Amino acid sequence: MAVWLWVVVLIGAVWLADWGADHLADPLRKIRRQWGVTGTGGAALLAIVTASPEVAINTTSALRGVGGIGLGNMLGSNIVSFPLIFTIAYLASRRELTGNGGTTQRESDGESPIDGAETHSAHIQQRLLRLDRRSVTVLVLPYLGILGLLALLTIPEQWQGLQPIDGVIMLVAYGLYLTQAVYRGREEGESVEWSTKELGLAVAGVGALAVGAYFTVRATESLIAAFGISEVIGGLFITATMSTAPEVFKTWRVVKSGQVTAGTTSVVADNAVTVTIGFLPLALVTLPIQNMLLFSVNLAFVALMPAALALLIHFGSDDHGLKRWQVGVLDSLYLLYLIVMAFGVLQLL
């Protein structure tokens, strides 16, 4: 089949996987309301669903014997997602909050209705992307801890490669990550109602997710063969970019509705799922790391993005947020990554 047709298949498969994840998200949102989970903790809970396309892609690549695609997707999506999501969020937040969207944001950030609207107007004038200060301690710092554990399990010479025991350890690490995020600042829950249609769509979502993941991997395999590149490179720059694209559109919609923190910092929780639950299927097939330089450089940039974000949020503004130049820093880090890869790492392969 022609290359352009596989590109169409790839786009359609990613959209299908995203549709499936969307219809799994609504039931999980209701669970969050029942449990009284805060907006920041809810981002970690909902990430189980929103990151499910990446997990499904990794699982499919492991089952098909092309684990390099999953490995590249795991690393690449955790790098490109930060500059993409925060840039889109900044652009989407350049509007006044109105209606229910403004109320949602004010409730999320614990502000009074009047102060919330005034504060957001001030942030527009200051060109500030406002974020809940709890996102750093609840989501970003624990995520950095997970990445440190991942490096410890995969980089030392005696432990190189992805082993089944590594997958189990990372799964336990995510359990701890989710537990602390959900229970910190937990509030009183509320009653919700479940409909048969909603549950039926959730079941359909599971099927769509599986089919979309399968064809995403199949399309990437074909494009890799056509371009003559390795599985990991294909995963880094083809699969990872495509699997992140739906999150960009979601971020635009959610942030424009006024849910700035939830729509933006969910990317951190998504990435935590990708490197833990998404790590497990690759580890279960005992995936070797063919090029440690390629892996190490990418893992370093995976960690550099959230580390820079934490510093920018904590020290960059008294109001805990990102100004335009700070969003530009994240974009510059991705540009640096591309330069290092193009003129350094890839030249040595």
From TrEMBL:
Gene3D superfamilies: NCX, central ion-binding region
Membrane topology: Multi-pass membrane protein
Protein's UniProt keywords contain Transmembrane: yes
Transmembrane segments: 74-92, 136-155, 161-178, 199-217, 223-246, 267-287, 293-315, 327-346
Predominant location category: membrane
Keywords: Membrane, Transmembrane, Transmembrane helix
Subcellular localization(s) per the UniProt record: Membrane
Domain of life: Archaea
Residues covered by the Sodium/calcium exchanger membrane region domain: 7-179, 199-341
A Pfam family of this chain: Na_Ca_ex
Keyword Transmembrane helix in record: yes
Name listed for the protein in its UniProt record: Sodium:calcium exchanger
Source organism (scientific name): Halogeometricum luteum
